[in-house]
Write a structure and sequence with these properties.
There is one protein chain. With 172 residues, the protein is an alpha/beta fold. The chain has a single domain, classed as 3-Layer(aba) Sandwich (Rossmann fold). Helix content is 30%, strand content 28%. It is built from 5 helices and 7 strands; from the N terminus they run αβαβαββαβαββ. It has a 7-stranded mixed beta sheet, sandwiched between helices. Helix 1 runs parallel beside helix 2. The radius of gyration is 15 Å and the shape is globular.
């Protein structure tokens, strides 16, 4: 697979460790043929990889128009444009579907309100028994985020590596 990236897009020079760990963990723990939503998709690494290797139907959203342009180009370049929908959406503002999985490497620098908005809002867009998957660094609030998520989800830390926590939050 290859991906185009550019200035103004998260992790433009190389795949970041958190996203790579998140995707590797998901690949080893979920079924194929799922409907997924990639919130804050950037140039599309997660959603496109899920479409290509897990036969997922990927909806990818972001507020960054440059990222969305790149995500569309990357879906086409990797042969999965028929299984990828790319939408401009401020979190869930333009999302209408219901998903098996919602995946996010949330924009920590945008602040806790934005991050919790993504995590809390996922409940309304998950099928019953659906799962929210996220990555948070320990030193950027992983433990408090887990406590917060446990108010509305059944949570599990699936993997820890190099200070990154991969969290699965299941809707119940």
């Amino acid at each position: 697979m290859s991906f185009l990236s550019d200035n103004g897009v998260f992790s433009k020079d190389k795949l970041d460790f958190g996203s790579t760990l998140l995707l590797d963990t998901i690949f080893n723990n979920v079924n194929n043929d799922l409907d997924i939503l990639d919130v804050g998709c950037g140039y599309g690494y997660i959603g496109i990889s899920m479409a290509k290797f897990k036969n997922a139907h990927s909806t990818m959203c972001d507020v960054n128009k440059r990222a969305l342009h790149l995500a569309r180009k990357n879906a086409s370049a990797n042969g999965v444009e028929d299984r990828c929908q790319v939408l401009e959406s401020n979190i869930y503002e333009n999302i209408t579907g219901i998903y098996d999985l919602i995946i996010t490497n949330p924009p920590i620098r945008a602040g806790k309100n934005v991050v919790y908005g993504i995590l809390d809002g996922a409940r309304d867009y998950l099928k019953e028994g659906g799962e929210l998957w996220t990555v948070i660094r320990k030193d950027q609030g992983a433990k408090s985020t887990i406590s917060h998520l446990e108010e509305n989800y059944k949570c599990e830390v699936v993997t820890k590596s190099k200070g990154f926590y991969i969290i699965k939050a299941k809707k119940h």
